[in-house]
Specification:
By secondary structure, the chain is mainly α. 71% of the residues lie in helices and 0% in strands.
Length: 466
């Protein structure tokens, strides 16, 4: 099969496997994004609340049913799904109705929590806009599932395209696509949250970086328009990320800008041309940082202090802290110490990160540095929310892009080094004549040292050498 066929086969296989879990993937954030998307379709507050609460409670009931079936003490008891769904609806309707009666009716989301907290989701229209066509065509349950499959499959395809742009062999590029699906990238992207779209857009930005850098000198004469198309792709990805989650646009622009500047400075020190693509990436990254900060201030988005108070007050359920930044530094120290202890206890993530970094930086130094920078946004996101009770792979999921792209690059380097070196044949004509004639003169002529006989010189028309 052609490579594109294999890409589609992997994506289709992944989609089929996801049929095992259609409901129960939602998180507390899902209902906010779903309500936003339904509001964009023109639904009223009551209609939006009914549909959103039904979906959220159906997911909670499905998880309760699965947990009860494998509970060693309660597996023989009646199915708790109906009771859990009924209690869930009563709880959520009570909270929403009270806030609606109190006048909290503004914005696109539903007032599941305080207006100050819901403002965080009001400034993230990108993912709800992405959901609207899926909800319109397939309904809520299958629409959210199909949207997750589409964005996750697209992320795997983008991983393949990034590697192929760096001229990684097709089998290893397909390995990168498969790693995206089986590692926590695929699991997190399938959840009805903004992380799947963030992963896809970050990979699109890396694809743009790969195009902007060219092919590393392996194919001279790279069309300049392809490099500039890559720069445009990076800028477009950062712009889309601002709509999905502006903090990710800020982090990615900062990391790509710093990495591009570092590459340019290193090349200058070696007295080699920095390259227009590298400079353009650095400029686009720096411009994205400035534009994100200015736009967030102009649109009155929640500030860094607001996000910090949300973290330290349990989503504004408690009074604001008097010295939030001092408490954050204390919490950061405790968090990363505990995080490191858990990684040493189960070092799979750390080992894959090390392998990915080694592979990315080994043979594709400039591009590898950009991959490391993009993956570093996962650590920045985690550092902005040092909450050990939050499922860590969701916050730090962007760091998994390092093994997704770096491990295939490492395998390429290992395979290239392990390939045996065979002596080059003289010419195809000499080889054919030596096998066709059994006389010692022919064998001697075909294998003798020195320049070949004129009658053995290949004129370029032989299909074997060509």
């Amino acid at each position: 099969m052609r490579p594109r066929t294999w890409v589609l086969v992997l994506a289709a296989l992944f989609a089929l496997l996801q049929l095992a879990t259609v409901t129960g993937r939602d998180t507390p954030d899902t209902k906010n994004y779903l309500a936003y998307a339904l509001s964009l379709r023109g639904e009223g507050k009551r209609e939006t609340a009914a549909v959103t609460i039904d979906y959220a409670c159906a997911g909670r009931a499905a998880r309760a049913r699965r947990a009860q079936r494998v509970d060693v003490l309660r597996f023989h008891r009646p199915d708790p799904a109906a009771r859990v769904a009924r209690e869930c609806r009563a709880e959520l309707w009570r909270a929403v109705s009270a806030r609606l009666r109190a006048g909290q009716t503004g914005g696109h989301t539903l007032p599941f929590m305080s207006e100050r907290f819901m403002r965080i989701f009001e400034v993230r229209p990108g993912y709800p806009v992405f959901l609207v066509p899926f909800l319109t065509v397939f309904g809520v349950t299958w629409g959210l599932w199909t949207a997750g499959v589409a964005v996750t499959a697209a992320g795997g395809v983008l991983a393949y395209l990034v590697l192929r742009t760096r001229r990684v062999p097709v089998p290893l590029a397909l390995t990168g696509q498969a790693l995206y699906y089986v590692l926590p990238c695929g699991t997190t992207a399938m959840r009805p949250m903004a992380e799947g779209l963030m992963l896809a857009l970050t990979l699109a930005a890396l694809w743009g970086c790969a195009l902007a850098l060219g092919t590393g000198g392996r194919a001279p004469g790279e069309p300049p328009r392809r490099a500039w198309a890559g720069v445009v792709l990076v800028a477009g990805s950062l712009l889309a990320l601002f709509a999905v989650k502006h903090s990710q646009a800020l982090f990615l622009g900062l990391c790509l800008g710093a990495a591009g500047a570092l590459i340019a400075v290193a090349r200058r020190l070696r007295r080699t041309a920095a390259g227009a693509g590298v400079g353009a990436i650095a400029v686009v990254g720096c411009c994205a940082v400035a534009a994100t900060l200015l736009a967030a201030r102009a649109l009155r988005y929640p500030t860094e202090t607001d996000s910090l108070q949300d973290l330290l007050t349990d989503h504004y359920a408690r009074p604001d802290r008097a010295h939030p930044w001092r408490e954050l530094l204390h919490l950061e120290a405790n968090f990363w110490r505990e995080w490191a202890r858990r990684q040493l206890w189960q070092p799979v993530f750390a080992a894959l990160l090390a392998a990915g970094a080694w592979g990315a930086l080994r043979r594709h130094r400039a591009f590898g540095l950009l991959v490391v920078a993009a993956a570093g946004t996962g650590f920045l996101t985690q550092a902005a929310h040092p909450d050990i009770s939050v499922w860590g792979e969701r916050l730090i999921v962007l760091a998994w892009l390092l093994p997704v792209l770096g491990v295939p690059l490492l395998l390429e380097a290992v395979a290239g080094r392990a390939a045996p070196a065979f002596p080059a044949p003289r010419t195809a004509d000499a080889t054919l004549e030596s096998t066709a004639d059994a006389t010692p003169e022919c064998m001697t002529d075909a294998t003798a040292d020195g320049p070949p006989h004129p009658r053995h010189t290949d004129d370029g028309r032989n299909p074997i050498t060509r």
